[in-house]
Design a protein that fits this description.
Elements: E1 9-11, E2 18-20, E3 24-29, E4 35-38, E5 46-51, H1 54-63, H2 65-70, H3 76-90
Antiparallel strand pairs: 1-2, 3-4, 3-5
């Protein structure tokens, strides 16, 4: 009997929606406490997921979703850098 492959679901830290891992952006906290976008989804570190919509990044900033996921204070510059990276991906 053939079984359907289970799609790994992840929750967006912005809107809280559950989506397939492939449809989302991974935000990474490296062991050096650096926060960056992980386009490959394979880098080492703690990951949190965002929908590919910029509104979700804005929501995550408001509701401190990333701060909860990474259990640390996230400076505004980091969010600004994430927004810039998002802009380059959208083009």
């Amino acid at each position: 009997m053939w079984m359907a492959k289970k799609i790994p679901l992840r929750q967006c830290v912005g809107c809280g929606e559950m989506k397939g891992k492939k449809e989302m952006m991974r935000v990474l906290k490296t062991p050096e406490e650096e926060i960056l976008l992980d386009a490959t989804g394979k880098k080492n570190g703690r990951g949190a997921y965002l929908c590919k919509e910029k509104e979700c990044l804005v929501k995550a900033r408001k509701n401190k979703g990333l701060e909860r996921s990474f259990k640390m204070k996230i400076p505004n510059e980091v969010y600004d850098n994430l927004e810039k990276e998002f802009d380059t991906l959208e083009k």
